[in-house]
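Model it.
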Amino acid sequence: MTPDLAGKGVVVTGAGRGIGAAYAKAFVAAGATVVVNDLDAEAATSVAKSLGDKAFAVPGDASSEDGVDALVTASRERLGEVDVYCANAGVARGGTEAVAEKAWDVSWNVNVMAHVRAARLLVPHWVERGSGTFVATVSAAGLLSIPGAAPYAVTKHAALAFSEWLSMTYGDKGVRVHAVCPQGVRTDMLWSSGAAGRALMEPDAVDPDDVARDLFAAMEAGRFLVLPHPEVAEMYARRASDPDRWLAGMRRMSGALPSVTMGTD
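Modeled.
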């Protein structure tokens, strides 16, 4: 089902390709006006142009404090109101606890603090007027984990925790929050995840348009978790009910996989 988005103002970060581009397309098709943000200015411009006069490219960094402030300011100028903010931009860094500090810093800023910084600017106004929607593209790794990619697993858990906190704090004040937690999605991030990532996620990977469709269904239903792979719910429940057994299974799976080759810088 499609939520009522006619005339709404939407911001999508990381919208130059993949899930973000699919979100932008779906929101425009539903009657919203969309700001297409990406660090890759050419990609953002290309997506916006393909969507017609209801989409505007606002390239830039959606993770730093100054970058988020500039994006929200420019979006308000374009849209009047930011009704929906999709914190979709993300990075995948592999490696263990020994990976370089830069990988941790980049992962923390893009996967977590980008969400915090956007909420800091948007939520007070949403609470004041009694409505607003925050969409966080998290990952099944935020509910479960992923072998061989400590920065990604840890920061995606944090992104989920922040989304939960937003919902429990402001959900009765008109702010809706949705955490999108797919496993494999056919995007550049999957193709660059190396043999281990593809072995884990490619067999059941879905298309970005499928993720957008499931987000809209969750928005219509008022459901917090968006699970394009429904089996993730069962795995999440097993993890919670018997964490020792779940960890033993994860160790076996990790030992059977080739090395993860996500970016480590």
